[in-house]
Amino acid sequence: MSAGSVAVVVAEEIGIPSWDLYELSIPFTVFGKPQPDLSDHWYDLRLCATGEREGGAGPFGLALRTPYGLEGLAGADTVIVTSVPDACVDEGRALPPGLTDALRDAHAAGARMVSLCTGAFALAEAGLLDGRRATAHWMHTAQLAARYPKVTVDDSVLYVDDGDVLTSAGLTAGVDLCLHLVRRDLGAHVANQLARRMVVPAHRPGGQAQFIDLSVPETDDTGLGPVLDWARARLDRPLTVDDLARRAAMSPRTFYRRLQAATGTTPLQWLLNQRLARAQSLLESTDLPVERIGELSGLGTANNLRHHFLKQVGVSPGDYRRSFFSAGAGQARVSSRASSAARTSAGSARTV
């Protein structure tokens, strides 16, 4: 049994540039290798080329060989466009023949559509981003916005989850989005363990800034790591910005500025993200009542926990647990298409 089929589109006709090769490797790393000790169900990955399945070698001597063409998108649960040729972005060259039609057909058939970096140009050309908020690598967002005025382009975030259509910034932000998909499908436990194996952060919220402006002097963040670890160990207690600043031996204003510069989010939003992650883990791995999970995560009453879950995750704690809890093993399990409702919102940062 599979967690779903993932069709990865390779839109390069000849070879793959170095940056695009990096992004192409991300879905292979996340979805391509079964992880039977984490979940009984994993993904069925297929690589689909837009042109000849045996392309010529690119500038780095890499030949492209794929078992599928664009027909491989048919029936896929998730379609990922990792990039499009540079000429399509910079010079306005047409996308490979048949690509936009194949993307529209896949979306109409119910596939979840995903882009990494310049792959957003393909989704936009197919009309799948019209009326939606989307992102891409910050170097290309101005071009995306100018070429597709019906798209609300946000150049400040790592990724945007709009339910059945998701877009990410370039390079490492693609890792964040792919792990976010695993979190939606298989739960926080599986996503966190997979991230640990990949030696990457377990969860960077989509609303985190993709680019921190370092035109101001870089700050010394040696005091942040210990205080954030200290806070994670005390999520069941009331914590304020003043508490964190005092622990870091900084003024509240300095602490606020340094944390935002380092993470792209505010101290209160960082705390909320940590509390929600703790609640998700407890819902997946224990049968504790919701009231107790609210206390242990620091979200307070059961009503407050439900409020934040509905607002940020999109489902109630009870529905989340039914999707991901496995009695006895305490291990996340997929729950078919129903698990797609249990998604972490990747919208703009909110404070509590």
Plain-language structure description:
About 40% of the residues lie in helices and about 10% in strands. It is an alpha/beta fold and about 350 residues long. The protein has 3 domains: about 1-200, Rossmann fold, CATH 3.40.50; about 225-265, Arc Repressor Mutant, subunit A, CATH 1.10.10; about 270-340, Homeodomain-like (Arc Repressor Mutant, subunit A, Orthogonal Bundle), CATH 1.10.10.60. Strands 2-1-5-6-10-9 form a 6-stranded mixed sheet, sandwiched between helices. The chain has a two-stranded antiparallel sheet with strand order 3-4. α6 packs antiparallel against α7 and α9 crosses α10 (about 250-265). The chain starts with a strand and ends in a 28-residue tail after the last helix. Mean pLDDT is about 80; it is low at about 210-220 and about 325-350.
* Fraction of helical residues: 40-55%
How many distinct helices?
14
**Using DSSP, what is the number of strands?**
10
Low-confidence stretches: 209-221, 327-352
Mean pLDDT across all residues, rounded?
Answer: 82
List the domain count as a whole number. Answer: 3
Please give the CATH class of the largest domain: Alpha Beta
Query: What structural category characterises the helix and strand content?
Result: alpha/beta
Q: How do the strands of the widest beta sheet line up side by side?
A: 2-1-5-6-10-9
Rounded to an integer, what's the Rg over CA atoms? 21 Å
